[in-house]
């Protein structure tokens, strides 16, 4: 039984990876991902300059998921560019590099450096960070999203995908899909956390930034994540791969993402809770489900969700 998958022209022996932001900020965390049973991994979304992020507590595990307002803490673009180029030198071209510039100009600066470097992997451009005070999520502003993509693809020639926020309205799905279909985007990762949720314990919020408002992840978001994966699988050009993210706790959750059309599945909250050992559990559970259904590869069921 194989759970290998392909994104762009890259083959991965396993369809599982971390969600950007989770256990991927430092060298130590990135090494743990590299040595895990994930199929690949992605770096923490970075900005041009290093950032401390928001004050703590800024991430809390909840029974049914998690809430965070990290505020984009990261070691800065140069650190992650060095990291991915060093990986290439060790013979690994199959990894993801997440960028999340605070302005369009900063995204262009980072992508220009990537374009002019020896980078051979896949860039995931984060259009959906919900936790920077005063900065709206690009993915909810369709004109702005189009402006960003137009500018990026005026010079950028390497494989690139976008990380999208969750959408909830059919008109919005159609609008964003129409924009994405116009550009040579290789993959779409959906969903980022559901922004600006509020969790209360006793009489108080549980995270410090933004009066307690933060991005929601985990089991709470799975139906929304599956809806986004499914809708984009239907609406996007067939040569755009979908990377599913949201609510993956079990092999069954991975199976459902793939059934909706995902080619790769990211793990966020449950990776925070269980650390990298989650990948071996998810892989063996997924293979067990496939075995029980006589499936030998992901293509046997990818996108084949049954409708009534
Ligand atoms: O760092 C964060 O606060 C963060 C980011 Br950049 C993101 O894309 N999604 C999220 O839930 N948190």
Automatic annotation (TrEMBL):
GO terms for cellular component: cytoplasm. It is found in: Cytoplasm. Pathway: Pyrimidine metabolism; UMP biosynthesis via de novo pathway. SUPFAM superfamilies: FMN-linked oxidoreductases (SSF51395). InterPro entries: Aldolase_TIM (IPR013785), DHO_dehydrogenase (IPR050074), DHOD_1A (IPR033886), Dihydro_DH_chainA_dom2 (IPR023359), Dihydroorotate_DH_1_2 (IPR012135), Dihydroorotate_DH_cat (IPR005720), Dihydroorotate_DH_CS (IPR001295). Its cofactor is FMN. Homodimer. This is dihydroorotate oxidase (fumarate). It comes from Apibacter mensalis.
